Amino acid sequence: MFRLLLLSVCLSLSCTLLASAEIDIKVSGLFKGSALLDINGKRQLLKVGATSPEGVTVIAADSKRAIISYQGQQKELHLSRQIGALFNAPDRAEVRINTGKGGHYWAKGLINGRQVDMMVDTGATSVAMSERHAQSLGVQYRQGLVGEASTAGGKKKAWQVNLESVSVGNVLVNQVSAVVLEGDFPEMVLLGNSFLDKVDIDREQGVLLIRSRF
Fold first, then answer.
1. Residue 97, number of CB atoms within 10 A of its CB
2. Which structural domain range is residue 201 located in?
3. Structural domain tally of the chain?
4. Where are the alpha helices (DSSP H) in the chain?
5. DSSP-based three-state secondary structure for 208
6. What is the pLDDT of residues 28-70, one digit of tens each?
7. Which of 44, 91, 41 has the alpha carbon at shortest distance from 212?
8. Which of 16, 17, 21, 214 is an S-S bond match for 89, by CB 3.0 to 4.6 Å?
9. Is the pTM for the entire model greater than 0.85?
C-alpha cells in the first residue's frame, strides 16, 4: 500500500541551473567488449553497455575502435584520439506558459498520446487525475497498485500507475508515474513532480519556462 499527500497548489518555482555539455574524452585503450577512456581527466574502464558518471555510454568496442554515446549523439573513436568539440549541446525542447485562470499555469499537452488540459502543480508529488480523466485518456488504472491518498476532502482510494508518456508542447518525458483518485477529484489533471522533476523549470517575468534536459 502507498500513501500520497496531495499538497495545496504551490507555484514558487526555484531556478534550475543548466548543466554544461562540455566534455573531454580520450581513448587510452581498446579491447574486445570494453574501452579505457579518460573522461575530463579521469580514467575509466567501461564495458559495452556501461555508462560513466558523466553520462558517456560505450555502445560497441573492439581492438580497433569504440563507439560511444553522449547526450543522444554517437561518435566512433580510435586509439589516442581526444574529443571534446565533437560533442555539441543538442537543442533542447522548451515551452513557455503564461499565467492563466486563477493565477495558475495551465498547459495543453498529451498523456499517452491523447490531448488533455493540465494545471502545473509543484505541490503535487505526482501527476494526478480523477477516474473520469483516466477513463477518457485510456489509462488502465485498475491494474495499478491500490492505496489511498489524503486530499482536502479526506482520504480517497487511489491507484498508482505508470504513464507511457507525458508531453507539454514539444517537451516529452517517457515513463511518468501518476496517481488516479477515486471519483471526480481532482477536477483537472495535475502536472505534478513526477513530470516536473525530469525537466528544468524557471520563471521569467511571470512566464513559466519548461525545458527538456536532453
1. 20
2. 3-16+92-211
3. 2
4. 131-136, 193-196
5. strand
6. 778 888 888 888 888 888 999 999 988 899 999 888 888 898 8
7. 91
8. 21
9. no
